Sequence to fold (347 residues):
Amino acid sequence: MTKEIRVAVVGAGLMGADHIRRISTRTTGAVVAAVVEPDAGRAAAAAALAPGASVRARFEDALDLDSLDAVIIATPAAFHEPVILPALQAGIAILCEKPLTDDPESALRILEAEQQLSRPHIQVGFMRRFDAEYLELKALIDSGDAGALLALHCAHRNPSAPPSATTAGMIVDSVAHELDIVPWLAGSPLASVEVRFPRRNSLAAKNLRDPQLILLETESGVLADVEMSVNIQFGYQVRTEGVFERGVAEIGRPSGLAQWRSGSYARAEHANFDTRFAGAYDVEVQRWVNATLLGRTDGPSAWDGYLVAVAAEAGVLAQTTGSRVEIKSGHKPAFYELPPTGVSTPA
Ligand code: ISE
Fold:
């Protein structure tokens, strides 16, 4: 492989454009070779961020014409599989935004296709695993310094939901992050999920049950409550508190400039996830590029993506039953044990 990988970015919405800017301005060892986006206006705006990139309406055209080494997929989840399967067939590296897919069946098809290759090629964009604060909390848990982890209180708050948001989608697209990060923090797979609906936010679209309270339990008995709000207006906030045998630890409070003025105290909160997790995305993408140059992956695998799809399906069922739903994922294939996909060492 060359010293600079040629990447196609598929999907030029907020996240795709963000990755194009990232690779073009602050990632080493990679160049955006193609922007794949059927909407001509969006494609042109995104391509302007990556001088020299071709603009294609179809991923297959980029595969045929742009000598790709890798692809970043940043389309809605329903369009992931049609890009992943030909990318796997071409043997290129894949960084797929979360969730891997929006149902376990398509995730399974992807696992099967990937296992035809000699090693994993897919990394899923669960960027929280690269966030400095999450890494600190994980190190505390793993060190045992505060005793065993007993419970987690998680708050995941978005300022406003797009018109396309749905009650089930809040689990599949948003709580997907907690479905990945809770077992990662606890070091134990998810065993069950329960969903309750508090009083509805009248600012949410009529069809949307927002907020939602989700209770996750790991096989080791750690309980995590998650408040998922998608119309909370004030800003973007992801907070996590760990309850240990000998204390508590919290991440996700606003940091940076604090002001005391006109009889009040203020600290700016993030407006959206692209700034809250900017550092995590930078590390994630740089490490993925570095790993790709070495013929490896370095982050959450397609298996992790499949586990989230299974847990999300259970969560959507739990929304309708109102009771605890077991999460049954099966055994991890040996294929996903090699090479290591942990992200514990900083770049
Ligand atoms: C979005 O796709 C993300 O990944 C954000 O982190 C999350 O907060 C938001 O709810 C999702 O829609």
In short: Residues 296 and 339 are 7 Å apart (CA to CA).
